[in-house]
From TrEMBL, chain A:
<dbReference type="Pfam" id="PF01315">
    <property type="entry name" value="Ald_Xan_dh_C"/>
</dbReference>
<dbReference type="InterPro" id="IPR046867">
    <property type="entry name" value="AldOxase/xan_DH_MoCoBD2"/>
</dbReference>
<dbReference type="InterPro" id="IPR016208">
    <property type="entry name" value="Ald_Oxase/xanthine_DH-like"/>
</dbReference>
<dbReference type="GO" id="GO:0005506">
    <property type="term" value="F:iron ion binding"/>
</dbReference>
<dbReference type="Pfam" id="PF20256">
    <property type="entry name" value="MoCoBD_2"/>
</dbReference>
<keyword id="KW-0500">Molybdenum</keyword>
<dbReference type="Pfam" id="PF02738">
    <property type="entry name" value="MoCoBD_1"/>
</dbReference>
<dbReference type="InterPro" id="IPR008274">
    <property type="entry name" value="AldOxase/xan_DH_MoCoBD1"/>
</dbReference>
<dbReference type="GO" id="GO:0016491">
    <property type="term" value="F:oxidoreductase activity"/>
</dbReference>
TrEMBL record, chain B:
<dbReference type="InterPro" id="IPR012675">
    <property type="entry name" value="Beta-grasp_dom_sf"/>
</dbReference>
<dbReference type="InterPro" id="IPR036884">
    <property type="entry name" value="2Fe-2S-bd_dom_sf"/>
</dbReference>
<dbReference type="InterPro" id="IPR051452">
    <property type="entry name" value="Diverse_Oxidoreductases"/>
</dbReference>
<keyword id="KW-0479">Metal-binding</keyword>
<dbReference type="GO" id="GO:0016491">
    <property type="term" value="F:oxidoreductase activity"/>
</dbReference>
<keyword id="KW-0408">Iron</keyword>
<dbReference type="GO" id="GO:0046872">
    <property type="term" value="F:metal ion binding"/>
</dbReference>
<feature type="domain" description="2Fe-2S ferredoxin-type">
    <location>
        <begin position="2"/>
        <end position="78"/>
    </location>
</feature>
<dbReference type="Pfam" id="PF01799">
    <property type="entry name" value="Fer2_2"/>
</dbReference>
Length: 782, 163
């Protein structure tokens, strides 16, 4: 490893602009003639639209235009789609209800956009939006998925009787039932996975610009995947043809999944720019973000885990009801199915698994992938039930897990996934050592002397990342392939540009992707530029989600680097009259191995472009592209241990220690990987301890729609973390990378809840474990 | 409409704005200084923190007109003479930022915190004082490290000098 190569703890190249206030986010963009949009949103969770009266609003100062769904229909703008087809177990396709970018006839959640006002200033647009009069006829409301399935519940979509989107299953029901019937012990639980609001700190924004002269469209947008946005806007929403549409996702202030999707506002801004003849910018305020950004989680599950007399798991049965909100968001159908139930084997040998999942419409914000997406829900079930079973069986939670660990690879689970590599004992041992697990009893006794209840909890997670082999996901219903592209351009002076379809919205790609080039060619990372986020610059790519930029995005870069290296060696061999198989690249030079002959990197590059002396038949230039399609998911895994102290008088939980030991395979930049873990842990701890999303069940109003009401983790809610890594290389990609973006959010909630329930002696505790809930649980146990 | 004049990053500026214009809007829209960010509408997130007359202020909590005549420093004005401020350097060295959106407010709050506490800052105090700045990326771990390191490097001298 060089100073800046693979494995080096290099400070980030992109930081300078962010620490000096020179980052360029979508809302920072200003173009000549730009006007501002404000959306008129439904204050009702469910209502018929009887009429829209814009006459007063049209006369307000600065108003340029007011548009609604009728005009969308005039211009044949398409419905918002869900891009992953799931079939129910009876073979019928999922029931996708109509979602118009601006609601027509019916609104189905508070915040559903009904009209848009375009005006000279933001304030004028907002003022005029308040003067738009929409005549609503309120309809009955349902916000809970369990309630929505009941007979007589309000119905959201005509084509989804009983509000059921699909009733899907995976695994072997008969074998699992037989295992439970024959078990020496069965642990049963009902588990709620609470709804979360992603809350990247940058609210969504869009700036649509139509150029009449060129009949060309540009959209600046807060996207994790600008090429997917261009594809969908073109192919499905009919806003602009792909060759006439440029989508730019400049600096993006966090995503966590919520910026994967192409929302109504982006569609409308782009379309409205042509319709009104002015560039249209929209910037979401925070309450709008709560009301419209796709939420995460929201599962209710009943589970049974069966053990034999040796405490070996013999079967695992899961029945889940998942709330998908009022409409099906872009990848919503895949989250509670193939991103969830395929991980229900965890780190364990489980011979029989069966999961049944019903997804349901309710009068709430659509639910889609949020950091972890399905895998936190699976891990939470498994790791709560493992800890609970250990308590019931009277064995240590660590021992019960060890008894059931998978130790031979590859390992085919009963739920599709084939794990390629791992060492779960190693991460558990590392975590237990770092946490001084053996010393816990003494610490608990000491805490008791201070009147505090001390508890310890463990979680061993696995996830499937690098999403994913295109043919495999295609066979499971995905509407897209999930490969990645890269292009490496060596300039005539030897500097390098890497164009990638991956998108960085905090992950540090401008540094880590450059480290790959530094490692390969010995050029400094300051001589390498990473270009991303602009469909006019970068060829088609699939973007960043599912911890895929390393395992898939970097693999595409490696493929392109291989091609560049091969050509560079040919040129160098020709220049030095040597055999190309003897050329090695070291410290920025191409050398003939075993001799003192060398050509500096830049000189080889210059030769490629002067083309005065190239091998016979070789094309000038040095630029190569590659598409990489993964052969399998990757399987990061790890062990988290949380230790808490609970105040029995107040129910306040203090996290006194949080240890993470992760196996991410090969690591490019440990500093950045640690940062990803810290952030994931904070989001998982937020889910477990703080973040509750509450709807009023009668009216469907989102009661937690601001930072006054929804508890975001603050610095003083969290400890400093003890993080470390173990390593088994991923055999499925050239760098051996598994991915690290989601692990923290996946593994931490059960560790924390296991710790609190251990401390208070009551296993009946629902996330978020607020002090009120913990206090009540303590009282209930007495 | 009101005419508002102030000194921003050492430069005298004035502009016309509606009476209801917030300081953050004036900074971003009138002056084009887009380093100061807006992350919420309830004065909780702290992405908009600037210094007004030497003290950290959420620029969404005051009207531009209230800052008339004030000395305002934004993130763009923190580095002096091409030299990054020690807090900026510490955020980079300790990976105290990921997406960068909360970072300007974090840094401006941290500078004010160090001004008030000098080198005596400890982790508990830093965490308590960051209550008004929300970050969704870093889990605060490296932000706390960066603030403590900058405080230690700047020492008590920073506090006295600022006063």
């Amino acid at each position: 490893m060089g100073m800046e190569g693979i494995g080096a703890r290099v400070a980030r190249k992109e930081d300078k602009r962010f620490i000096t206030g020179k980052g360029k986010y979508t809302d920072d963009m200003v173009v000549p003639g730009m006007r501002h949009a404000h959306f008129v949103r439904s204050p009702h969770a469910h209502a018929k639209i009887k009429g829209i009266d814009t006459s007063a609003a049209e006369k307000m100062p600065g108003v340029i235009g007011i548009l609604n769904g009728a005009q969308l229909t005039e211009d044949a703008i398409g419905n918002i789609i869900c891009g992953w087809m799931i079939h129910s177990k009876d073979g019928s396709p999922m029931n996708m209800g109509v979602w118009r970018p601006l609601a027509q006839d019916t609104v189905r959640y508070v915040g559903d956009a009904v009209a848009v006002v375009i005006a000279d200033t933001k304030a004028q647009a907002r003022d005029a939006a308040e003067a738009v009069v929409v005549d609503y006829e309120p309809l009955p409301v349902v916000t809970s998925a369990v309630e929505a399935l009941k007979t007589g519940a309000p119905q959201l979509h005509e084509n989804a009787p009983g509000n059921l989107i699909y009733d899907w299953e995976i695994g072997d029901a008969a074998a699992t039932d037989a295992a439970i019937a024959a078990a020496a012990h069965v642990t049963e639980m009902k588990i709620i996975n609470n709804r979360l609001v992603p809350n990247p700190m940058e609210p969504r924004a869009a700036l649509g610009v139509y150029d009449e002269g060129e009949d060309h469209y540009t959209l600046w947008t807060t996207s994790q995947n600008p090429h997917v946005a261009r594809l969908v806007l073109s192919a499905f929403y009919n806003v602009a043809p792909e060759n006439k549409l440029r989508v730019i996702a400049p600096d993006v202030g966090g995503g966590f999944g919520s910026k994967i999707y192409i929302y109504p506002e982006e569609i409308v801004c782009l379309w409205a720019s042509k319709r009104t003849g002015v560039p249209v910018k929209w910037n979401c305020d925070r309450t709008e973000a709560f009301l419209t950004d796709a939420h995460g989680r929201d599962h209710v599950s009943t589970i049974k885990m069966a053990f034999d007399a040796d405490n070996r798991i013999t079967g695992f049965k899961v029945d889940t009801i998942a709330n998908l909100g009022a409409y099906m968001s872009l990848f919503s159908s895949s989250v509670p199915t193939y991103l969830y139930a395929t991980l229900l084997s965890g780190q364990y040998n489980i011979p029989a698994i069966h999961a049944n999942v019903r997804t349901v419409y309710t009068n709430t914000v659509p639910v889609d992938a949020y950091r972890g997406a399905g895998r936190p829900e699976a891990t939470y079930l498994l790791e709560r039930v493992m800890e609970t079973a250990a308590r019931e069986l009277g064995v240590s939670p660590a021992e019960l897990r060890r008894t059931n660990f998978i130790r031979e690879f590859p390992h085919q689970t009963p739920v599709i996934m084939c794990y390629d590599a791992g060492d779960y004992d190693a991460s558990m041992s590392a975590a237990m050592k770092a946490a001084d697990y053996d010393g816990f009893a003494a610490r608990k006794a000491e805490a008791k002397g201070r009147g505090k209840l001390r508890g310890i909890g463990m979680s061993c997670y696995i996830e499937a990342c690098g999403i994913a082999p295109s043919a495999a996901v295609g066979s499971l219903g995905a509407g897209v392939g999930l490969w990645e592209s890269a292009e490496v351009r060596v300039n005539a002076v030897g500097t390098v540009e890497v164009l990638t379809g991956s998108h960085s919205h905090g992950q540090g790609h401008e540094t880590t992707f450059a480290q790959l080039v530094a490692e390969r060619f010995g050029v400094g990372i300051d001589s390498v530029s990473i270009v991303h986020g602009d469909t006019d610059k970068v060829q088609m790519g699939m973007g960043t989600y599912g911890s895929r930029s390393g395992a898939v995005g970097m693999s595409a870069v490696v493929k392109a680097l291989d091609k560049v290296e091969a050509k560079a060696k040919k040129i160098a061999a020709h220049l030095m009259e040597a055999d190309e198989s003897d050329i090695v690249i070291e410290n920025g030079e191409l050398k003939v191995a075993g001799t003192d002959k060398s050509v500096p990197w830049f000189q080889m590059a210059l030769a490629a472009y002067t083309a005065h002396n190239l091998p016979e038949g070789m094309e000038p230039g040095l630029k190569e592209g590659a598409f990489y399609d993964p052969s399998n998911f990757t399987f990061p895994a790890g062990c988290y241990i949380c230790e808490v102290e609970v105040d029995p008088d107040t129910g306040v939980t203090e996290i006194v220690q949080f240890v993470a030991a992760d196996d991410f395979g090969k690591i490019i930049n440990p500093m950045i990987v640690e940062g990803q873990v810290h952030g994931g842990l904070a989001q998982g701890i937020g889910q477990a301890l703080l973040e509750g999303t509450h709807y009023d069940p009668e009216t469907g109003q989102l009661l937690t729609a601001s930072y006054m009401d929804y508890t975001m983790p603050r610095a003083d809610n969290l400890p400093s973390f003890k993080v470390s890594t173990t390593e088994t290389a991923c055999p499925g990609n050239p760098l051996g990378i598994k991915g690290c973006g989601e692990a923290g959010a996946i593994g931490s909630p059960p560790a924390l809840i296991n710790a609190i329930t251990d401390a208070i002696g009551n296993n009946d505790l629902t996330m978020p474990a607020t002090s009120e809930r913990v206090w009540a649980a303590i009282r209930a146990a007495q | 409409m009101a005419t508002v004049s102030m000194t921003v990053n050492g430069r005298s500026v004035s502009g016309q704005c509606e009476d209801r214009t917030l300081l953050v809007q004036f900074i971003r829209d009138n002056l084009g200084l887009t380093g100061t960010h807006v992350g919420c509408d309830t004065s909780q997130c702290g992405a908009c923190v600037v210094h007004v007359d030497g003290k950290a202020v959420k620029s969404c909590t005051m009207l531009a007109a209230q800052a008339d005549g004030a000395e305002v420093t934004t993130i763009e004005g923190l580095a002096s003479g091409g030299e990054l401020h020690p807090v900026q350097l510490a955020f980079r060295e300790h990976h105290g930022l990921q997406c960068g959106f909360c970072t300007p407010g974090m840094i401006m709050s941290a500078v004010d915190m160090i001004r008030r506490h000098g080198g005596k800052l400890d982790e508990k105090t830093v965490r308590a004082e960051l209550e008004g700045n929300i970050c969704r990326c870093t889990g605060y771990h490296n932000i706390v490290k960066a603030v403590l390191d900058a405080a230690s490097k700047m020492g008590d001298g920073a506090r006295i000098a600022a006063e």
